[in-house]
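Lab notebook: predicted structure, single chain.

Context: the supervisor wants predicted structures on file for every construct in the current expression panel, including those that have not yet been purified. This is the next one on the list. No modifications to the sequence; it matches the entry in the shared construct table.
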Amino acid sequence: MNTQLKNDFYLGNQMSENYEKVLEWCRNILENDFKPCGLENELKKELYDLTLDWERRKEEAEREKRQIGGLMVIFHGLMKSWRQAEGLAKKYNKNVCCYLKMSLENKWLTNYCCSMWE
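Prediction complete. Output recorded below exactly as produced.
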């Protein structure tokens, strides 16, 4: 795994293992699509926040003896948001960066994940 990705976000002094997994799953989209648009750090922050939210929700669900969707929901949500941004860029003949930025500003990924974890 890229050392820069591993060093970006910490929970206290310990990296969340789940966050490392999410970054690994999302690395290609992160590096090939968001990074050229200057949106890498914003996406990493959202992925980190979502990982922490999932961990909190999972602990709560376990206490209540119920299940929630898995961590892979974050990756699937990112794929959905990325495809939507690409589709809009093609439809309206605009740069995909415009729609990737919009996806982060409007929390497309967060909204998707939260709906799947409810």
